[in-house]
Amino acid sequence: QVQLVESGGGLVQAGGSLRLSCAASGSIFSFNAMGWYRQAPGKQRELVAIISSGSNINYADSVKGRFTISRDNNIKNTVYLQMNTMLPADTAVYYCYALGGRVYWGQGTQVTVSS
């Protein structure tokens, strides 16, 4: 059974940085794409960043220039999100996402940015 496990969430002051990690277990194949979504209270889940197996990357406009997504070339099915110059508007539960025949989701990690 495939599981996505996130780590790295927490509390940070505005202007600070956090790095999220997501590692997949139970997978014997490489995902076509991996990425991050987030959901703030009272809002719909939204795409933050996604990277394909061919290293094509898409970012939400709200995070361009501040967040960087990357995959680990040495560890299969691992993805990171480096978040810099964080804003209170970045406060949300962040979910790891993977696409490989079907969509997989992590359990989510809370990110809180204080003003």
Would you mind describing this structure in some detail?
It is a single chain. The chain has 115 residues and is mainly β. Helices cover 0% and strands 54% of the residues. It contains no helices and 11 strands. The strands form 2 sheets. Strands 2, 4, 5, 6, 9, 10 and 11 form a 7-stranded mixed beta sheet that branches. A hairpin with a 4-residue loop joins strand 5 and strand 6. The model has no long low-confidence stretch (mean pLDDT 94).
Summarize the structure in short.
The protein is mostly beta strands.
Question: Main attributes?
Answer:
single chain, 115 residues, mainly beta, seven-stranded mixed beta sheet, four-stranded antiparallel beta sheet, 11 strands
User: What is the string of SSEs from the N terminus onward?
Assistant: EEEEEEEEEEE
Query: Mean pLDDT, rounded to whole units?
Result: 94
Report the portion of residues in β strands: over 45%
Q: What's the number of helices?
A: 0
Rg over C-alpha atoms, rounded to the nearest angstrom: 13 Å
Poorly predicted sequence stretches spanning 5 or more consecutive residues: none
In helices, the fraction of residues equals: under 10%
- End-to-end Cα distance, whole Å, is 40 Å
- Largest beta sheet, briefly? 7 strands, mixed
Supply the helix-strand structural class.
mainly beta
**Would you report the number of β strands?**
11
Using the alpha-carbon principal axes, give the shape. Answer: globular
